[in-house]
Amino acid sequence: MTSFLISLAVLIGGYFIYGKLVERWFGIEPDRKTPAVELEDGVDFVPLPWYKIFLIQFLNIAGLGPIFGAIMGALYGPAAFLWIVFGCIFAGAVHDYFSGMLSIRHQGKSVPEVVGHYLGEPARKFMRGFSVILLILVGVVFMMGPAGLLANLGGEGILANTSFWLGIILCYYFVATVLPVDKIIAKIYPLFGAALLIMAFGVGGMTIISGLPVPEIGADLNHPGGLPIFPMLFTTIACGAISGFHATQSPLMARCTQNETQGRPIFFGAMIAEGVVALIWAAAAMSFFPNGLEGLNAVLSQGGAGLVVKEVSVGLMGTVGGLLAVLGVIACPVTSGDTAFRSVRLIIADAIGIEQSSKANRLKLAIPVFAVGFALTFVDFNIIWRYFAFSNQTLATIVLWASAAYMVSRDKGHWFVSLPAMFMTAVCTTYILMAPEGLSLSAAISYPIGITAAIAAMIAFLVKNKSNAVAGSAA
């Protein structure tokens, strides 16, 4: 398992080395007042200790992404290690750091407002609608999944009724969305975040101790379904490498950060921690089952990623590990779903200018949002949800371009942000051209168009920002 151990070391080293460089290039201002201090309202703007914010941010952005996505990505073999490590360090952590720090620099504003400031009013309007739709979808699916799991735990009567658990989770979501951030989220999320890390370290430790045959990078392995690595791997593993959903969550914690020096451990660090979790689960998934990837694919076909989590956890850590895995599978989506709805409330509030210190104002926004969410639980998401991977990575790409525009506006080098943005533009364009839920075009057509779109986006970015710089100097 040399490749796995080296990947783990590089990922952790990326926080200390590249994270420090990104912090320097961004240009933190330790003496600058943060929104948590300047705009404290006891509801959303609440100063919290950095370690609590880190654990909350980690849990908010994680959910089931770094577990389920990594398990599905493990079907591509150790190529998944490369994407998790390099994607996380050079794209995902940069994306998360900028989405958090730019929110801090703009009074804790939500991602559509920040993007609009740097990419223009059309981008702002698009991001408002795009983000709200994406977050409501996330919140609804993260209600339905845990409700089904709870109903199938072996209870009888009403406890075996999915609708009953759906109602319980919906009520909890509503309360968590409306109450001040320090009443529920700041109290229980750090515990869940720590539990998720402990479970991942347990799986990783037992993978090493048990000497599982983790394949090495360069091994001649192919996806059992014959799917190409590019662009499919780069959308399958999202939360463990780069995810636009994170940009909707970072402003929640930007409103609680007390000093800009805390940005690197909170935003960059939480993404690296998520990458570590993804790396561990990818290694365990591709090496635990007999016949390697074929065995993993068989279990996925039988019961999905949830069954893989159960089999791996019980097999490596015993019955207690299996119980913790099931509880994690239930708790993780719940704790990401409620913050998704909270983000919707704040995005709408920022868009129409309704302050949120008043409980009545919070209810005015929360009630219709949850009414829509509840109605959507009756819709079949099997088709709609296929577009989530593409939408998620598209959102990340837009945030990266906005971050690059910020660096240009500060007369600083932008390549460490614009190059990942260019790469993700190629990924998203190629994916929607090739995917069955897209245009289903051949690789011979999709690859050239995807690469051309990425180059065109970079040229447009450079031309636009050069003209802005000339206009600014003339003024």
Q: Could you characterize the architecture of this molecule?
A:
This protein is mainly alpha-helical and 475 residues long. It is 75% helix and 0% strand. The chain has helices spanning 2-16, 18-26, 35-38, 50-62, 65-73, 79-105, 111-119, 121-151, 162-178, 185-209, 229-236, 245-254, 263-288, 292-352, 359-376, 388-409, 415-434, 443-474. Helix 4 packs across helix 14 (292-352). The termini are far apart. This is Carbon starvation protein CstA. Residues 4-143, 159-297, 299-429 form the CstA N-terminal domain. It is found in: Cell membrane. The chain crosses the membrane at residues 6-23, 53-74, 80-98, 132-151, 163-181, 188-209, 229-245, 266-289, 314-335, 365-384, 390-408, 415-433, 445-463. Keywords: Cell membrane, Membrane, Transmembrane, Transmembrane helix.
* Global Rg: 21 Å
- Strand percentage lies at under 5%
Outline the low-pLDDT stretches: 470-475
Shape: globular
Which percent bin holds the helix content? Answer: over 70%
Provide the residue-averaged pLDDT.
Answer: 89
Terminus-to-terminus distance: 59 Å
Give the total of beta strands.
0
- The structural class is mainly alpha
Summarize the biggest pleated sheet: none
Q: Helix segment count?
A: 18
| Helix/strand order, N-terminal first | HHHHHHHHHHHHHHHHHH
